[in-house]
What we know:
The protein is an alpha+beta fold. The protein folds into 3 domains: 2-98, no CATH class; 163-251, Signal transduction histidine kinase, dimerisation/phosphotransfer (DHp) domain (Helix Hairpins); 261-404, 2-Layer Sandwich (Heat Shock Protein 90). It has 9 helices and 10 strands. The strands form 3 sheets. It has a 5-stranded mixed sheet with strand order 5-7-8-10-9, with helices on one face. The protein starts with a helix and ends with a strand. 13% of the residues are buried.
Amino acid sequence: MKAFNKIFVAVIGILAILFASANIILSADNSDSGRPYRVEINRLARQIEADGHADISDCEYVINIERYSENFYSTDSDYAVREINGELYRFDYRTDGGDRTRLIVTVNVILGIMAILIIFVMLYIKFNILAPFERLTDIPYELSKGNLTTPIKETKNRFFGKFIWGVDMLRENIEQQKKRELDLQKDKKMLLLSLSHDIKTPLSAIKLYSKALSKGLYESREKQLEIAESINAKADEIESYVSQIVTASREDFLSFDVNMGEFYLSELVKKIKGYYTEKLSLIGTEFSVYGFSDCLLNGDIDRSVEVLQNVMENAVKYGDGKSISLNFSEEDGCILITVRNSGCTLADTDLPHVFESFWRGANAENITGSGLGLYIGSKLMRKMNGEIFAEIKDGFMCVTAVFTKV
């Protein structure tokens, strides 16, 4: 706001200088406005002195010449008297003084209106746009501190309607995620406590069976086989509990909620192009979007963007940076969107694992990542009644998302 105040003061100063300069220039012109008609009078006086008469047809200012008579000084116009060859002559003339005054007044009125409009617009911007926006600048800081409960109020002029709506949605989303995270932590602890308790029973049984076997309490071969089968069953039970723990630790923190609806393919492509055209041009990667026929697709537009973004980010990280393209095809009432990047270094044996959670191929060495991008994409596509698959073609990595048409 301080910078704007300096600009405001500078504008006021420029307007004042403009006013002063315009009036000085016009006033200076007005002081010289009498010279043209005096020049004409002097020229006509010399003609009368030489020839006894003068022609005023080509004069711009002198409108009449009158010799001395009874009504010599009776006139409504401006005039000048000259003595020529012993006689008095009256030269009637007109001036532009009135026009000059009107010009000065007109210029000042126009400048005044302009100044008022400029000042009004700047004050309006200050109090209705910059001041409310300055209050909004504290919101990200408050969100970073975890102050998420207070809704963000809309201003009356609604200049920041979409921005405030978006920030408020972000606040609510962060608040929901925070609550969800706390609930998940609670559920996970309860699950771990429950599974830990459940594991103790088969584990105790295994220990007892093992101790009995080590002491030779079961002499018959049949009884020993029975105990071995029991130990194996208890081990399978423990393995099942461990599997539940692993599944919970992998998936509980991820959200796969989708809001099914309809959206245009062009809308999805527009968002991806908007995200990546400039980004890829800055790193020197050729980005091509091939032609497609627009149509309605089933799914969640935001989640669909997330899926393609995850694929695009993988193409950026694991490709050679030369080219990335979006390709489109149609099969059996479905639209196939393929992200194709050059420089694929993924081994064919690793291809079946790319959609597993936390899995990273040998080509991911020294590249940051979580191994969740394609995993999340596969989960979301199935939630939207679609599919996603990957293949390697002639050194190009091709990941294809399959969307159903409406």
